[in-house]
Amino acid sequence: xxxxxxxxxxxxxxxxxxxxxxxxxxxxxxxxxxxxxxxxxxxxxxxxxxxxxxxxxxxxxxxxxxxxxxxxxxxxxxxxxxxxxxxxxxxxxxxxxxxxxxxx
Length: 104
Fold this sequence. Notes:
Blueprint: E1 2-8, E2 11-18, E3 21-24, E4 26-37, E5 44-52, E6 67-70, E7 73-76, E8 81-84, E9 89-92, E10 94-97
Parallel strand pairs: 1-10
Antiparallel strand pairs: 1-2, 2-3, 4-5, 6-7, 8-9
C-alpha cells in the first residue's frame, strides 16, 4: 500500500493509495462546516464536511520508518513506514512525508 502526508494549509493530511489514485482520508469523528450562498436567495446554507485525517489530531502518530512487526518479530521497512492512528495502524510499503522535516 502507498501512503503520504501532504501539507494542506498549515496541517499535514494523510493520503492513501486506492487503486491507481492517492485519496485524502477523512476523519470519522470530526467534521467542519462549509457555508455557501444559495443562488437567487439571500440565504446562507451551512453543511457539514468531513475533516481530513491529519496531524492536527492528538491521536495521529508520527510515521516510523524503522521497523514493522510481522509474524516473526520486527523487520526493517525499506522505503515504507508504520503509522499509528486513532483506531488502526497502517503499514505502508511506500511512504512519503512532505511536511517540513518529514521523512522522504
